Amino acid sequence: MSATEGKVVKVVNARLLLNHEIVENTYLWFRDGKIVDPQALFFNDHREPDEIIDAHNAIVVPGYLDVQINGAFGIDFADESLSTEEIEKNRDTVALGLLKYGCTSFCPTLVSSAPPVYHKVLPLLRKRPGSVTNGAGILGVHIEGPFLNPEKKGAHKEEVLRTAEHGIETFDETYGPALERGDSIAILTVAPEVDGVLACIPSLVTRGICISIGHSTATVTEAELGVRAGATCITHLFNAMHAFHHRDAGICGLLGSTTLPIPKSQKQHPTPSASSPSTRNPDPRPFYGLICDGIHVHPNSVRIAYHSHPKGVVLVTDALSSMGLPPGCYHLGEYEIEVNGDNVAYVKGTTTLAGSNITIDRCVKNFRKFTKCSIVEAVEAATLHPAQLLGIEKVKGTLSPGADADILFLNDELDILRVFVAGEEVELGK
């Protein structure tokens, strides 16, 4: 038995994020890595707390989720030149390092690669729970490509991009057994206009994979066909897609769609808002990733997206191996990336943006600054919304009983004061 097994912890003097509100004069209880109902503890188990934590009026929220991160601290998840042991060690280094930024769960992200890369790396990035020993939990891999449009390849190698000429067999051949197993892949970014891709989306969704539209030249009609087929997300909105045009709004135009079919279930769909086609039913418009570094998306554009579809925003870092490190040269897949003194990352020798160096806590702060939204909305864009996207909102992104005790203490400026993962506190000084 571990030292914390069975121990009941009560958090007092906190402002809790509960049911979309900051609530005072209440308490948070957790035991064995899970948030628990105090009434059940008292009446069924006759338990009082073994430990009381004074939050000193901090805002207490769920841990942040980052569903698009390519690496950090000099590590690139798509580096298949390393040994199995080195890849596993690097995975753990990133997972542990993310905790200090409040990221308690993440989707390691792989750029477009040749099939042998996926076959080697995917089994090493399987889903696993977070802990103070292992670091942030792994929610499954986000794979960008290789079923992308070469015209919007961004920092992806064009020679590895491909079409789905043989349908779902092409996907199975590309990703290997991991696509069938369901323990590694959480999100696939695809371009729906690429030959054979649109017809495969329903089959991929039935395998429990979230389909996201990105690196695409899709018209608004093609993008809507992708959503009708089962896509529920847009990858890094405004980037690697046609710019908004008033005659054909492209993928960006999905935020204004009014004719998409109302989902039969709330699962993996945004909750309704004042801008939804129906204010009583799940929003048929997809979630959308936003990189809030002030570089990839202008603050005005962030604000426009937020007001168009507030319940769909999912804050992501799209961070590179250079995250947490000084300016210099790093790698993304087979590309060499140069980070300049302004902390902007380009494919070396070009003006092509290649991901960011921002951390998820800074994304939350920037989102609030750019949009003037509430603290609740800013935090939920990095907690509840990504959890809803992945269909795990009962265990992640919430402080409701039954959820994982991944918890952040914040001040009013949204600085991170304390971090708990699976109910155990992280030593932030390390």
From TrEMBL:
<protein>
    <recommendedName>
        <fullName>N-acetylglucosamine-6-phosphate deacetylase</fullName>
        <ecNumber>3.5.1.25</ecNumber>
    </recommendedName>
</protein>
<dbReference type="InterPro" id="IPR003764">
    <property type="entry name" value="GlcNAc_6-P_deAcase"/>
</dbReference>
<dbReference type="InterPro" id="IPR032466">
    <property type="entry name" value="Metal_Hydrolase"/>
</dbReference>
<dbReference type="InterPro" id="IPR011059">
    <property type="entry name" value="Metal-dep_hydrolase_composite"/>
</dbReference>
<dbReference type="Pfam" id="PF01979">
    <property type="entry name" value="Amidohydro_1"/>
</dbReference>
<feature type="region of interest" description="Disordered">
    <location>
        <begin position="262"/>
        <end position="282"/>
    </location>
</feature>
<feature type="binding site">
    <location>
        <position position="155"/>
    </location>
    <ligand>
        <name>substrate</name>
    </ligand>
</feature>
<feature type="binding site">
    <location>
        <begin position="353"/>
        <end position="355"/>
    </location>
    <ligand>
        <name>substrate</name>
    </ligand>
</feature>
<feature type="binding site">
    <location>
        <position position="236"/>
    </location>
    <ligand>
        <name>Zn(2+)</name>
    </ligand>
</feature>
<feature type="binding site">
    <location>
        <position position="247"/>
    </location>
    <ligand>
        <name>substrate</name>
    </ligand>
</feature>
<feature type="binding site">
    <location>
        <position position="215"/>
    </location>
    <ligand>
        <name>Zn(2+)</name>
    </ligand>
</feature>
<feature type="binding site">
    <location>
        <position position="144"/>
    </location>
    <ligand>
        <name>Zn(2+)</name>
    </ligand>
</feature>
<keyword id="KW-0119">Carbohydrate metabolism</keyword>
<dbReference type="GO" id="GO:0046872">
    <property type="term" value="F:metal ion binding"/>
</dbReference>
<feature type="active site" description="Proton donor/acceptor">
    <location>
        <position position="318"/>
    </location>
</feature>
<dbReference type="GO" id="GO:0006046">
    <property type="term" value="P:N-acetylglucosamine catabolic process"/>
</dbReference>
<feature type="binding site">
    <location>
        <begin position="239"/>
        <end position="240"/>
    </location>
    <ligand>
        <name>substrate</name>
    </ligand>
</feature>
<keyword id="KW-0479">Metal-binding</keyword>
<dbReference type="GO" id="GO:0008448">
    <property type="term" value="F:N-acetylglucosamine-6-phosphate deacetylase activity"/>
</dbReference>
<comment type="similarity">
    <text>Belongs to the metallo-dependent hydrolases superfamily. NagA family.</text>
</comment>
<feature type="compositionally biased region" description="Polar residues">
    <location>
        <begin position="268"/>
        <end position="281"/>
    </location>
</feature>
<feature type="binding site">
    <location>
        <position position="296"/>
    </location>
    <ligand>
        <name>substrate</name>
    </ligand>
</feature>
<keyword id="KW-0378">Hydrolase</keyword>
<dbReference type="InterPro" id="IPR006680">
    <property type="entry name" value="Amidohydro-rel"/>
</dbReference>
<feature type="domain" description="Amidohydrolase-related">
    <location>
        <begin position="59"/>
        <end position="426"/>
    </location>
</feature>
